[in-house]
Structure formats: structure tokens, C-alpha cells
Design goal:
The longest helix has 14 residues, at 168-181. Helix 1 (56-66) crosses helix 2 (86-92), helix 2 packs parallel to helix 3 (109-115) and helix 3 packs parallel to helix 5. The strands form two sheets. Strands 3-1-2-4-5-6-7-8-11 form a nine-stranded mixed sheet. A two-stranded antiparallel ribbon has the order 9-10. Helix content is 32%, strand content 24%. It has eight helices and eleven strands. The chain is globular and about 50 Å long. The structure holds iron/sulfur cluster (SF4). Iron/sulfur cluster binds next to loops.
Length: 230
Amino acid sequence: MESEIARIKEMFVSTQGEGPYVGVRQLFIRFCACNLMCKYCDTDYMYENANFVYSPEELLEYIKKEFDLASIHSISLTGGEPLLHADFLKCFIPLVDAKFYLETNATLSDELYKILDYVDIISADIKLPSATGIGNTFEKHDKFFQIARENKKIYLFAKAVFNEDVTEEEIIATVNLAKKYDFELILQPQMQNETMLPSINFADEVFSKCLKRYNKVRLIPQVHKFLDIR
Ligand code: SF4
């Protein structure tokens, strides 16, 4: 991958539908490529399907022309996995007078390190094998959170997508990470279109189990799916 060229799938302004910033207006920049293959993934992040191939300066020019940056809360760097473009982001972010919100699968700690001084908010996923169908990534998450905590100014939180296959071990490991690095944990029921896969009762049980171990936990479904917005 070229270091200072970004491959971007799409850019649009919309309302954040997940986590503690639900409801804020953001410019979403969706980068191509991902290092994982979660079975519930609903994004087209294929590298060869990029609609924009830009240098940092070209991207700055494009977003200034197309969007009103003064009216948004922040710029969401999303994907795919935006940290696969860390070398690009290290050049791009300092050019822009805006807050940056990084949406990441929290597995690429070395890449995070490159842009740690430039992001304001990190929305990290904790990937539960029962939902993703991929192997256990807890060790990678641990290393990621350790690096993220080196910048005390960053607002860090994590989301964990779960369904009725979630195990006791996953719940404990997830809460332990949140406790160890002292961040807010958002439980996010897996969705299939506009329907929540776990029942309300099941979701509430998982919520209670987490709250017994740690009090900075919230249960927040993906609001944009209910509102039918992007
Ligand atoms: S980390 Fe995100 S973009 Fe990558 S496969 Fe999983 S859900 Fe899809």
C-alpha cells in the first residue's frame, strides 16, 4: 500500500449512530481495506473498489469544497480499518482544523502509535469470536489499549457487538479489559437489518452480568439502523 496515498470508498455527512456520541453530526471518511474478516461485516471495503485515490492535500481540498466543516462535530475515520492508512493519516490530520474520531477494530497498535498525537476520540471495537467468527483477538486489543492510554487527552471507549452465542469467558475478558484500561464499555446487540438478533431479555442479562463486575457499561443498540440512516 502506498504510504501517503489514501484509497477511500466514500465520504458523506451523517449522524453518528453508535456509542456515547450517538446523535452528533459527522463527516464520515470510509477507507478501503481491512485486516479482519468478521462474518457480520456489512461494509464494502475492498481495496480495488476505491472511489477516490487522494494525497493528503487532495483530500483536504476535496472535503473543504464539498462539506461545511464548521457545522460538524468531528470527522469520523472509518472503514474497513482506517489504521491501515496510518502513514497517510499522519500527514492528513494535521492539515485539518477539526476534531478526529477514529473508528477502529483495535488490533493494530503499531499503526495507532503513528497517529496517537493527532486523534481526539477513539471508538475501539472489542471483537468477540462468538459474533465475528474470527479467532481470539484479546491480546491484540490489550496491546492496543495500552498504547491508546499513552495519550491522556484522547477520549477512549470500546464497543462490543454480541449475540446470543456470547460466552461467559468473553464477557469476563471484555470487562477485564475495560477495567484494566479504565474506559467506558458499550454493549451493542448485533443487528440483522433493523432487527436486533439477541432478544431484549438476553441483552439485558448480558448487561447485568457486565454491570456486576464494572459500572462504566452501557447498552446502546445501533440507532442509525432504527432511523434508517447511513
Ligand atoms: S473489522 Fe470492521 S470492517 Fe473489518 S471485517 Fe470486521 S466489521 Fe468489517
